[in-house]
Amino acid sequence: MNLVEQVMTTEPYAGAKRVFWVVDSGSSHRGRRAVDRLAGRFPNAVVVHTPIHASWTNRIEIFFSIVQRKVVRPNDFTDLAQVRDQLRAFEDRYNATAQPFQWKFTYAMFRLPLWERG
User: Fold this and answer.
1) Measured by CB atoms within 10 angstroms of the end CB, which terminus of the chain is less buried, N or C?
2) Contact 43, 18 (CB under 8 A)
3) Average pLDDT over residues 42-49
């Protein structure tokens, strides 16, 4: 809730009619309790869950894991300007050299039980 608190108490979000929070079905924000908890604290917040089988979101999660490993760890920045500069430098390098992810999930795999997927 720390991030939500920071965002929702800052304009333009604090005064917005609605603010949509797109979340996956992780245990910390899954289900009705999470929706009610957020709406109880911020009535203008609307939770939108991604589909359970939203494999397209894995691509952005892969990218964020790369950023986490290559930019923000170790977390020894002296100030936010240094973080910004490192992220921008990484973005330039990554955009110049990035290759498509080799996505292996197929429709046939979707039909298999989770424990049988390779």
Assistant:
1) C
2) no
3) 90
